[in-house]
Design goal:
Radius of gyration: 18 Å
Largest sheet: 4 strands, antiparallel
Strand content: 35-45%
Oligomer: single chain
Strand order of the largest sheet: 1-24-23-22
Mean pLDDT: 92
Structural class: mainly beta
Shape: globular
Number of domains: 1
Distance between the termini: 37 Å
Number of strands: 24
CATH superfamily: TolB, C-terminal domain
Helix content: under 10%
Number of helices: 4
Length: 354
């Protein structure tokens, strides 16, 4: 899998990010687009604002990754980090084990999450594959006209993990999914067959990472936590399912719910359900595009709503994919508009939320 990432980055240099962003970005069918974002695999909303933050994988049209700031009302984007003179203010009290700032020449962002601090700021959690496998922490100041992001610390992942998604815990700390062991050359075949490859890890600043018992799934992917911290909700990508797992108790066995597609990221909807987005193709087809030099992956995708109490899934969207957009990874409802990201593309799709 390390070869997959290396090939993706090498392909990005040949493709050229500027050329990708300059291509036409007109609406396609029911989809409109926020333009000039590259490989925005995940999206979060800055609490209490109109602003969204999008991640940016390296690969395809992007030789290095970024964080993007999205105006959900005007449907515009700009670079958030790194840009200009990047803001770096390490907090050694909160993150004592962090060895230092990330290598911004290799920055590659993946899963995101965010937690309000109550003073007009928030903590942004960012999965980074560039130069190290780590969760990078940012302070987002939303008191001005536009939010600003300052890197403040990190948590370097244990060996033999490949972080995918992250979620804060109500009482502090976080949980992180590892999709597979990057040294396991058979990991793609295992996920294509639905065999277990990953797990969930819980982290606290003073204790580091510990694997959550019973969290082994096929391609542990998106993750969210119940408001009381008692339940973990995980996308089992290779199983084409979602899973509910008791945290710190219970049988240790996840309760699985078939999704029928490769369930990727999870995001809370205004009605209290979880939005589940993902690709509607075999896992091997997703890997094939991820390994390619394509500027876009254009395969079919779906969005469903997960009632985590009743353990039911309701279909919301089933799209065939197009030359403009495909392989969705996240769906976020912001003010009645559904924003949809992808791990390989030069735009974020949006349409009215149902």
């Amino acid at each position: 899998m390390k070869a997959i990432l290396a090939l993706a980055v090498a392909g990005s240099v040949l493709a050229g990010g500027a050329a990708a962003a300059a291509e036409p970005c007109a609406p396609s069918g029911k989809l409109h687009f926020v333009c000039d974002t590259l490989n925005s695999e995940d999206l979060v909303q800055v609490p209490g604002t109109k602003w969204l933050i999008a991640s940016g994988f390296a690969g395809g049209g992007a030789p290095v990754g970024h964080l993007y700031l999205i105006d959900s009302e005007n449907k515009t984007s700009r670079l958030l980090f790194p840009v200009g003179a990047p803001r770096l203010a390490p907090d050694k009290t909160a993150y004592p084990a962090c060895p230092g700032a990330p290598d911004l020449g290799k920055f590659s962002t993946h899963g995101l999450n965010i937690r309000a601090a109550g003073d007009g700021s928030a903590t942004l959690y960012v999965v980074n594959h560039g130069g190290r496998e780590a969760i990078e922490f940012f302070r987002v100041d939303a008191k001005g006209a536009e939010p600003a992001a300052t890197w403040v610390g990190c948590a370097v992942m244990p060996a033999h993990t490949w972080p995918n998604s992250v979620a804060p815990l109500p009482a502090g700390g976080m949980v992180v999914t590892s999709m597979f062991d990057p040294d396991d050359k058979q990991a793609p075949d295992k996920m294509n067959a639905g065999a277990n490859t990953g797990a969930v890890y819980e982290w606290h600043a003073q204790g580091g990472f510990k694997q959550v018992p019973g969290s082994e799934l096929s391609g542990d992917n998106g993750i969210e936590v119940s408001r009381d911290g008692k339940w973990l909700y995980v996308a089992a990508w290779g199983n084409k399912a979602v899973a509910r797992l008791a945290r710190g108790g219970g049988t240790g066995k996840p309760e699985m719910l078939p999704a029928g597609f490769l369930a990727d990221n999870l995001r809370w909807a205004p009605d209290g359900r979880l939005l589940v987005a993902g690709q509607d193709v075999p896992a091997k087809d997703v890997f094939a595009c991820f390994e390619s030099r394509n500027t876009r992956c254009t395969q079919a995708w779906r969005v469903a709503a997960w009632d985590t109490a009743a353990m039911t899934l309701s279909p919301l969207l089933a799209e065939a994919g197009s030359a403009e957009f495909g392989d969705a990874t996240v769906a976020l409802d912001a003010g009645g508009t559904l924003f949809v990201g992808t791990f390989r593309g030069d735009r974020i799709a949006y349409l009215p939320a149902k």
